[in-house]
Design a protein that fits this description.
It is built from 17 helices and ten strands. Helix 11 runs antiparallel to helix 12. Strands 4-3-5-6 form a four-stranded parallel β-sheet, sandwiched between helices. It has three domains: 2-138, no CATH class; 142-250, Rossmann fold (3-Layer(aba) Sandwich); 273-462, no CATH class. Strand 9 (382-384), helix 14 (391-400) and strand 10 form a beta-alpha-beta unit. By secondary structure, the protein is an alpha/beta fold.
Length: 467
């Protein structure tokens, strides 16, 4: 893993994306060359140079479509099975539609249907071959990282299970556990390394070929080997604490084992003027474009809601925003008009019986959220951020969920990291899981992460897996 604008990005996925962009560029050029040879007029050097912008548009459109289809959320156990083809063809269709729009806006980039068809055919073959090589290479031990855990308690067990069971992006080989402190034994005794007198962490890491040591000790009082960990770092062995390991591997911030000092002295939490200015500009541009594109859809949704039960089309509700400020959020009504006739707020559930038939479709496709664009223009919300919650639930959650108020340090959003990674919340436990994603976003928010969330939101809409 490495970081782009504070967000953890898999090196494997980055390399795959880079290789496939090169394949797409090459497919566009090869398609042009084959098309011109077919008509007996080879492509000149000037024509090749002029074709560069068109090839880049082709590569960007197709790679964006593949991202929106979730083709870079890799599953090594799945490999190149059926879902790969089920996603590749729709991705190419989406890429074709995007290119059609691009050619309409910038006709100089248009390079003909023949070249386009050849380019898509060559790209499909190239991507398929690249993924075969990629997944076969991923099975080699060279792609594994050998990892050593300092600790043998509950935290060490949880970290090791995450490293072993995770089947995407990165593969780990757990070489063992080193007992430290007074934590209860929670890992298999056979996996605990036998440390002889005089053995240092550097020696053990070298002996077992460990490239990384994860400090997973809950009780660090007493004989905590801080000097030996420094020696390991100086010798080129990566040293990571459990909180950072969880953040890196799950894109969450785990609150159950979190030390407040980690939040205080760690990186992130960018609230600078430049970041606020860029985010506001991003909000206004995205909101304007999406409102222009979806305005006919909103008119249709309003008509469908009214025709279903002749009750109000819009639904307004008080929510908690930045710094605890109360504001009214606007949505298309997706529940019955008497959804809370008892007067007591209720959690929304995955298959909530109060949801109407039209409302169920709107929730799956996120259409019910579109009126919140008005909240974005007003400045109460951002386009991307933690979802705003009702004050009734916030008061309850603050008492039982640690650090819950941290999510109110930035503006809430129409879509967010928790929404594309987790389902509807109907309990305090669900709220905790979503908070851990929200904390990750609050800590690492950037323009880059906002774009990734929008791409993931598009995937949620396309597959009707609304959250």
């Amino acid at each position: 893993m490495f970081r782009i604008s504070n967000h953890y990005v898999s090196k494997i996925v980055f390399v795959l994306l880079f290789v496939e962009i090169l394949i797409l560029l090459g497919a566009a050029y090869a398609g042009a060359a084959m098309r011109f040879l077919d008509i007996g007029a080879p492509l000149t050097t000037d024509q090749f140079d002029h074709f560069l912008a068109s090839a880049v548009a082709f590569a960007v459109a197709v790679s964006f479509s593949m991202s929106a289809m979730g083709m870079y959320q890799l599953d090594f156990d799945e490999g190149l099975r059926h879902p790969f083809f089920m996603k590749l063809m729709p991705a190419f269709l989406m890429g074709f539609l995007i290119l059609t729009l691009v050619f309409y806006v910038a006709p100089d980039l248009y390079f003909g249907r023949g070249i386009l068809l050849l380019g898509f055919g060559l790209a499909a073959a190239g991507i398929f071959i690249a993924r075969i090589i990629f997944f076969k290479t991923s099975e080699l031990r060279l792609m594994q990282s050998r990892i050593l855990f300092l600790g043998n308690g509950a935290l060490a067990k949880e970290c090791s299970e995450l490293a072993v069971n995770k089947n995407s992006y990165h593969r780990y080989k757990v070489v063992g556990f080193i007992p430290v402190g007074s934590d209860d034994m929670c890992v298999p005794a056979a996996d605990v390394l036998k440390v002889r007198e005089g053995d240092s962490l550097v020696k053990l890491a070298t002996q077992y070929g460990a490239q990384e040591i994860v400090v997973s000790v809950q009780n660090r009082r007493g004989s905590f080997p801080i000097k030996e960990l420094l020696d390991c770092k100086l010798q080129g062995v990566k040293v990571t604490d459990a909180a950072t390991f969880f953040e890196r591997e799950t894109c969450q911030i785990r609150v159950d084992s979190l030390q407040p000092s980690w939040l205080v002295f760690g990186g992130g939490f960018d609230q600078s003027f430049i970041r606020i200015f860029m985010k506001r500009g991003f909000d206004l541009i995205c909101s304007t474009l999406i409102m222009a594109v979806t305005f006919p859809i909103m008119l249709g949704a309003a008509l469908a809601v009214w025709l279903e039960d002749r009750n109000p089309v819009f639904y307004s509700q008080e929510r908690v925003g930045k710094d605890g400020k109360i504001f009214r959020v606007h949505k298309f009504r997706s529940m019955r008009a008497d959804a809370e006739k008892g007067g007591t707020p209720q959690w929304a559930a995955q298959n909530d019986p109060r949801v109407t038939r039209v409302g169920n479709f709107m929730r799956k496709t996120r259409i019910d959220e579109l009126p919140q664009i008005l909240n974005v223009f007003k400045g109460d919300m951002s386009f991307v951020g933690p979802r705003p919650e009702r004050a009734y639930f916030v008061q309850q959650l603050i008492e039982v969920v640690p650090y819950y108020n941290v999510r109110h340090s930035i503006k809430p959003g129409i879509t967010g990291w928790a929404q594309v990674r987790y389902g509807y919340g109907s309990s305090a436990e669900d709220a905790l899981q979503k908070l851990q994603y929200d904390l990750y976003y609050v800590k690492n928010n950037s323009l880059f992460l906002d774009v990734l969330i929008l791409i993931n939101t598009l995937k949620v809409v396309l597959f009707r897996s609304g959250r």
